[in-house]
Design a protein that fits this description.
Number of domains: 1
Helix content: over 70%
Shape: elongated
Number of helices: 5
Radius of gyration: 14 Å
Oligomer: single chain
Order of helices and strands: HHHHH
Number of strands: 0
């Protein structure tokens, strides 16, 4: 995964989240705090996923946990398109196809 692409995904999600949180009536201070936590958590979990994808032997349970965690983060931040795609990827049949789809989504 390219760092620029990950940053772009996180930044786009933060912008979606800002609007999402405003629609829920959070004030600016709360939104700032929520965005910081969300960006931190996304960065951390995307780094975990990247490490899993780069490992010689993929731990399928760890991969599914990471996809599940990311799905929740994206969903909570209002980026439902990415959340739904990650949920679909958890259901993908073969590991090879799943890995190819994940790399395509994040690269």
């Amino acid at each position: 995964m390219k760092e620029q692409q990950l940053k772009k995904l996180i930044d786009e999600t933060a912008e979606i989240a800002r609007n999402h949180f405003q629609a829920f009536g959070f004030d600016d201070e709360q939104i700032t705090s929520l965005l910081a936590a969300g960006q931190r958590d996304l960065t951390k979990e995307l780094s975990k996923l990247q490490a899993l994808l780069e490992s010689e032997q993929i731990d399928i349970d760890a991969l599914n946990l990471s996809l599940h965690a990311l799905k929740g983060l994206f969903l909570n931040m209002g980026n439902t398109a990415v959340a739904e795609k990650l949920n679909e990827l958890r259901q993908e049949g073969s590991l090879r196809a799943r890995l190819a789809e994940i790399r395509a989504l994040l690269d």
